Amino acid sequence: MHGSAAGRKVIRKKRGQRDSNASRAAILQAALNEFSSAGYEGARVDRIAEKAGVSKPLLYDYFGDKDDLYAAALREAYVQIREAELELSLEELAPREAIHELVVFTFRHFRRHPWFIAMLNTENLRGGGTVTRLHDRHEIQSKLLLALDDVLARGKRENIFHRDISPVRLYLIIASLCYFPVSNRFTLAAIFDLDWGDEEFGQHAETVAEIVNTWLTSERAG
User: Fold this and answer.
1) How far is 101 from 58, CA to CA, in rounded Å?
2) Suppose 38 and one of 42, 145, 181, 208 were both cysteines; which one would form an S-S bond, judging by CB atoms 3.0 to 4.6 Å apart?
3) From CA 195, how far away is CA 200, in angstroms rounded?
4) What global pTM score does this model have?
5) CA nearest 88: which of 138, 38, 16, 144?
6) pLDDT, mean over the chain
């Protein structure tokens, strides 16, 4: 009987952990949607709790006040894109293919997750104070930078890439080229009468990948 009771206790504990993790994930996703659509000032914690299907006391118990919740949501935005990048397994791809896959993924992530762009815009409008206070912000980004460093090193070693560039600078180029057409899609559509759907955005992603790879593989003039 004692062993059976202990076993039931372990099962209840594991179930409680799963429920807690599910609730936290739901709150974070609801917070991402709320902060990205309403901005920091317009976001309401009660709406986040309602969309996550939890009570406000539970939300506060998990994450603290609105500032803490916003910080957790911002961190989650970075964690999600970095974890998804790891699934590309860039270390297993040839250098040019690795760059191509990263560019296409980045463009696709920006387009399919508009809250990511909105969260970054919000944080930049607020002066970047919250992201600066994330204690593990460098650790979160380090996995991508290590992967890019490996791709660049292999490209140079195999005499494929001829440019000397750091992983950070390379990612700035990739993110910039992918960010602009997505973040400005509404104004660009109005100004230039662009009627872009998945096909057009997909073609643009391929073009950006070709541009980056062409630059990396070209010899510096002079």
Assistant:
1) 40
2) 42
3) 9
4) 0.88
5) 144
6) 92
